[in-house]
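FAQ: What does the model actually see?

It sees only this:
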Amino acid sequence: MTIRAKLEMQRRGTGLVMFAGWFCFMTGMILGFFVHPILTVLCAVGFIVVAAGGIWYFAKIRCPNCHGPLCHALNWPPKGLFRISPRIRFCPFCGVSLDKALEETVGAPSAERNP
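And it is asked to produce this:
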């Protein structure tokens, strides 16, 4: 498994959780308006799930080599909801290739490794 595949897997899981929260939020709005007002509680649940997914995405999507935060770097240029653009080839913090095998990089000594 490459670093890119691992990051895409983490991004896919977080994206699916956030999509489920958004769906719950929208369902709560619609059902609360048309069926019964108590169902607007689903809006709050959906909002909390989306917020937690966003916080998880920004805090936990990191380079496995240097543990630098990659969340902003992976979002541009946009390639899709769960994909990382092939134009992003290296970690901006340690320079490791995202297409290297994960076993080759994890735990490798690096002069610029973050503590």
